[in-house]
Specification:
- With about 350 residues, the protein is of the alpha+beta class.
- It has one domain.
- Helix content is about 30%, strand content about 20%.
- The protein is built from ten helices and 14 strands.
- Helix 3 runs antiparallel to helix 9, helix 8 crosses helix 10 and helix 9 crosses helix 10.
- The longest helix has 19 residues.
- The chain is globular, with a radius of gyration of 20 Å.
- It starts with a helix and ends with a helix.
Length: about 350
């Protein structure tokens, strides 16, 4: 494996040619008010984004949306298909002995992504089958000496199942989508504020085509790649003039930072001010007292066992579980206090 310093330098070199374009796109997006793309906002297919979680209290937050049957086996070797170094965290595309393909993410983002995915799924948002393995074996059979060096025993990694029946076919934007005017969309923004996920890039949001048991296709809008969570948001001065998404807006998997940052700063009329620092103020300014209360009422239905299962599934120690959950619950309590 390459050292973190070399990996970071390599990523920077790859990013340099696209910085001007990214700057132009991000500059416009960061200052554009969210708008609906639905021809008739009153007839949006809301179940493409969110479904009322009537069974929330009984959902298995250790295994998540895929359940135990789809979980990756930590005892079998995983064959390297490709090295994925396109994002912040390094990773692989791998294949297990049964032929199932997995997208694997290593590093600091693996654990918070798993927790955030579990929480969003618990309160009704669609999520792909996602798991964390704390120790597993990678086998690199072909591709020369460089690829062979990737093989060996690996530690904490996020495994996301890839399937022909559940395919990501395009991206969708926080600023332009059919759901902007709906309660669940605004609740999705609140949920991300509770979890301090700040990396709201369009490329992290995927439209999935799902083939059901009856063969009928479905279209789902999913927020993926939630690894920039469970830390704190920051706003370096240069972002005021260069609002590039994903560029230094906060920390990841940072317990101390997560504990230190507040949630609700105040209320003006029906609008809520948050302890949020980032480039997406136009999204955050949409949020009302009702939106915060709606989301926190859903989160408050999760039991202590479910919260611990979500963090335990990500490989967090008991102390980290306890401290993270205490902070999340304090945020939920703040939100519930806004309810009429």
């Amino acid at each position: 494996m390459r050292s973190p310093q070399k990996s970071s330098a390599a990523r920077l070199v790859r990013l340099l040619p696209i910085v001007p374009l990214a700057f132009a796109v991000a500059f416009c997006a960061g200052r554009t008010a969210p708008r609906t793309t639905a021809e008739d906002p009153t007839r949006v297919q809301l179940d493409q984004l969110w479904v009322q979680p009537s069974d929330l209290e009984s959902r298995d937050l250790f295994h998540g949306s895929g359940g135990p049957k789809l979980a990756p086996d930590p005892l079998v070797p995983y064959e390297l298909v490709a090295v994925d170094d396109s994002g912040y965290s390094p990773g692989y595309d791998v294949r297990d002995p049964k032929g199932t393909q997995w997208s694997v993410k290593l590093g600091i983002e693996a654990q918070p992504e798993l927790v955030a995915s579990r929480v969003l799924w618990a309160i009704g948002y669609h999520q792909p089958p996602t798991y964390v393995l704390t120790k597993w074996e990678l086998v690199a059979k072909e591709g020369g000496t460089k690829v062979a060096k990737e093989g060996g025993t690996k530690e904490v990694a996020r495994f996301r199942r890839e399937s022909a029946d559940e395919k990501a076919v395009s991206d969708w934007s926080w600023y332009e989508n059919p759901f902007v005017t709906t309660q669940p969309f605004r609740g999705l923004v609140v949920a991300n504020l509770v979890l301090n996920n700040w990396d709201w890039k369009t490329s992290n949001n995927k439209v999935y085509h799902i083939t059901g048991r009856d063969g009928a296709p479905r279209r789902l809008y999913i927020v993926r790649d939630l690894g920039a969570s469970l830390g704190k948001t920051t706003f370096p001065p240069f972002l005021k003039w260069i609002p590039m998404r994903g560029m230094g807006q906060g920390s990841r998997n940072d317990l101390k930072g997560f504990e230190e940052q507040g949630f609700i700063k105040g209320v003006e009329g029906r609008s809520v001010k948050f302890h949020y620092r980032g480039i997406h103020e136009r999204l955050v300014k949409m949020i009302t007292v009702e939106d915060v209360a709606w989301t926190c009422r859903l989160m408050a239905r999760m039991s202590d066992q479910q919260w611990h299962d979500a963090f335990r599934a990500a490989g967090y120690s008991e102390e980290y579980q306890r401290r993270y959950i205490a902070k999340v619950k304090s945020k939920i309590k703040e939100g519930l206090a806004l309810s009429p």
